[in-house]
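sorry for the late reply, my laptop died twice this morning and i had to redo everyting from scratch. anyway the thing you sent over, i finally got around to it. pasting the sequence first so we're on the same page, its 292 residues, then the predicted structure underneath. double check i copied it right bc i was rushing
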Amino acid sequence: MNGNHQMFRPPSEARSLIIRVADGCPHNSCTFCGMYKGVRYRAHPRNEVLRSIKTAADSWPDAERIFLADGDVMALPFEDLQFIASELCDRFPNLARVNLYANGRSICAKTDEELSALKRLKLQTLYMGLESGDDAILSAVGKKDTAAAMIDGARRAQSCGLRMSVMILIGLGGHHDSKAHAIATADVVNKMQPRFLAGLRYIPVPGTPLYKQIETGDFTVITEHEATVEMREIINRLELSRTIFRANHVSNIVPLAGRFPKDKDRLLDDLDRLLASGHLDQDTAGPAPYTL
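ok and here's the structure:
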């Protein structure tokens, strides 16, 4: 709904009704990301949001799941989020859940009372791109968040009844910082204890600043073998009490899925067999996926 630029959503929102309440990302500084490039950030005024909601309700009145776009909708003021969520509850009688992108700072900008109020208005899952638990790597790739802020945001959101879906990016530290990236990322995820965890592999996107660093030799993409070692290192260090894990995005070398803690050993065994198979490219990242 609204806007002419490309819409982005998490894979798990494929069956959701998507309503755009902002254009672009309020940060839009990550050097690895090609989303929203060239899109000027703009929060939609309430009259525009109302039109979008009414149009959606007229066409899909029985919608049960709604995803609010674009990037980091949680960065909107609480009063605007409360207004949007209230309108959705009023106009969609079968509504079960509302989900959106968030980051650590945008969650922490809300009080516990505000987060709980949004939960009562059927906000359910917050999608957070942790990317890495290493602050030096986060800073290097232009991520305007810190590991501490993301840990705090995730913990506070979940203490208020919201669910966190956290994404990590295999290979974001490149060849030089692969080990540090893996260790720090697992440590941060353990402190978050998210309900959902997704592992994607970094795929260079032409036109992005990090892609240009690859071209100049300032960043070395890890090989297929190194990416698998890094994934194994992270999984081996995860100590999660109740988390659904997915690494079945097209960017991944092989699809992985399981629940922590019960499937941890199986996931490690799967990766050990892959590493011992001799099929992984030890010189390059391998063929890029047809599409992301």
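DSSP finds ten helices and ten strands in the chain.
thats about all i looked at so far, will dig more tmrw
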